[in-house]
Every structure is written in C-alpha cells, then in structure tokens.
C-alpha cells in the first residue's frame, strides 16, 4: 500500500482532533461498522487506536483456528470459517489477479503470475514487502523461515516444475536446488528443525542444510523411495465403474514439532469421489517412520500451498482425529471444497462451502495472527 494513500485514509477516518478524545468502547463500536480494510488502516494512527482496532475484529475473523482462504467467483478473497461453516468476506488490499502461494503469521505471499512477481502482504497492517523476482514461475508454494520483520529471514519457493530456489532478502541472490529431478521433481516442502525438507514425487523425503553465503546445500535422505516415479500413471488405470486417481503427498509439521507425510488417494465414481488417507510421522530419535493411527485431540490440515496441525477444541468446528484436505482438482468435482477423512473409521465426508469459489485458484489453509 502507498504510505501517502494510507495516511490520507487515516486522516479520513480520524477526521479531527475530537476523535482522540472518544472513549475506547465508543471507538470500538464505530470501528466495527467500517470495512475490514479501514479497520486495518485505523491501526496505524496511534497505539490507542491500534488497541481498539484489534478489539473491533469479530472473534471469528481469521485469527484463531485454521481458515480456508478462497478466491470467490467475482475475484475477491474470503475466508471460510469451520466454526460457522460459512464464508467471511475479508478485504485484502491487493490486486484481484494475485494468487496466494504461502503465508506465515499475518503475512500472505501473493504471486502475480502475469508479471512473474511475488509480494508479501500483511492482512492486519496493510504493509507490503517485495520479494526479488524468483527464477521459478509459476510458483506452487512459498515458505518463509520467519516473518519479514525478523533479521536474517529466508524465502524458499517451489516451482510447479518441481524445483526449489532460496534467497535471503533484500540483497541476496537466488540459489537453486536441482536434486528434485531424480525424484520426479519435488511435490512439497516444509521447514523442520532448521532444515528445508523436500518431498519427491517418488515419496522420498530429503532434508537440506543450506548455506546461502557459501551457496551449498548438504542433503540427507530421511525417507527412501516409496514407489517409482511412474506410479501415478500406473495408478490412473482403472475400470469403467471406478477410476483410480493418483496419490497426492503432503509434508506437514504437527503441533508437537514432528515431521509428517500425508498421502491421499482419490477414486472418482459416477456419483461420488472416494478418498483414502495414510499418515506417517518421522520418529527422529529412532530415525524411522511410524504410521499414525490416531491424532489425539488434534486434526491435520493439508493442501498444496500450506499444511499444518491444529487442536480440536470445543466450539472450534474441528473434528478430532481427522485429516482436512483442500485441493481444487478433486473436490471441485462435487459441491464442496473440503474433504474430511476420519482416521478412526476411514470414513470420508465433504464439507459444503456455501456461496462457492473459483476453481482458478487453489484454496489455502492459513492460520494468521494479529500479533
């Protein structure tokens, strides 16, 4: 956002010196009546306004359990609330053509595919941070080691070609990791214990210790090849009544700080889409992978842009011991965009999204904060 424009908008809201004398409870009530974008703008006026603006956010806007960020058919962004089971419009000050490819805290990474550029947008302050143009486009996923306000933060991008590149803004140079070719390309990545972990299309998990100053990446294999690269094509062959889809693999870091691989296979029938899910967790002490039979008190949320774990607390709308999947290729075939798989009984259900959303952009799980 242009600082001059932000200042002008702040002046429009403040109006005059009399606003500074308003009781906090009255200012909070007023801010609840304005748009989310102007509520964000009010935060930059002064510390007291920032406090009131934060208090004026409805409790179910995107600041507690994971939300699904959607692109509506009209082009605007919105959040789907699991607790309310409805869409919550949220005005993000960015171009309608931008596509979310990652997030950390309250920062969203927005890709502008036509311009081959990426920018970080803060949904609570309206600030933006430019990222040097990556060598890989389109970008499938972007990770940040820390928010852009932190010293020494690093950006990793995964291209749809299956290659990963890293940079330390603002003055660094991009470094590309080419090892994915031998694994059919990388399908996902996550940051775990200070290492960049990449998941190959053959099921291999490779952990990298990267030195951007020396431009080297020391690799260690955490998980060996699980299936040939051509497995997806073989799995696609099916009968007339049932078509077997491919396995989608996701890397996630759960709330205990453990590395998790989620494998999901779908089957398309004439009247339904079936889903099977397998979850394995890396036991670092034993250096082995274990099948997860139960997610006690929590659920996993997986997608091609972001994956995470969250507690299934009372009133959150989250089902314990379940895997929530958001991906447009399959779930768009039926009138819902969230697949919910129970590890307890293997039952797969769909969570309907009222109002619909565009199939042009991948739905993204995010869990921002207003800190």
UniProtKB/TrEMBL annotation:
Note the superkingdom of the native organism.
Answer: Eukaryota
Start and end of every F-box domain? 22-61
Q: Which SUPFAM superfamilies match?
A: Calcium-dependent phosphotriesterase, F-box domain
Q: Which InterPro entries does the record match to this protein?
A: F-box-like_dom_sf, F-box_dom, KIB1-4_b-propeller
Q: PANTHER family under this entry?
A: F-BOX/KELCH-REPEAT PROTEIN-RELATED, F-BOX_KELCH-REPEAT PROTEIN
The protein depicted here goes by the name F-box domain-containing protein
